[in-house]
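To: structure subgroup
Subject: Chain for Friday's discussion

All,

I'm putting the inputs and outputs inline so they're searchable in the archive.
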Amino acid sequence: MLVLILALLLSDQETVSAMGRIKPSRGDFAISELSAEKKEKFLDEHNKFRGMVDPPAADMEYLFWDENLANLAQMWSNQCVWDHGFVEFGDEYPNDVPFKRVGQNLARNGELLTTRSQRREVVP
């Protein structure tokens, strides 16, 4: 199972991965094709675990789905680079994004899920 984790970067520092600075162009653009049910499941699980931090956070915000971020994560995962990837935006990027930089990780779970019901528990 692949898990994409997105994090907004609020720093003005130059961001560089092992591949160097990465700026998406129109040709790199990808569409995330997760169903509405899977999006809801991912968010519900993620927000559930965020709510379980101990000690409790005073201002823990509820996460919501962002199609632009999902598409950027899809673009990164399509490259199959097992590294922390940073993306900077330029005028050539086709979507209207309200931030300068984002970062994402491509990860996988090595657990063997042998039955259909076990697999459904992870990704319905």
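Points worth raising on Friday:
The beta strands are 2-8, 85-88, 101-108.
Residues 48 and 111 are 21 Å apart (CA to CA).

D.
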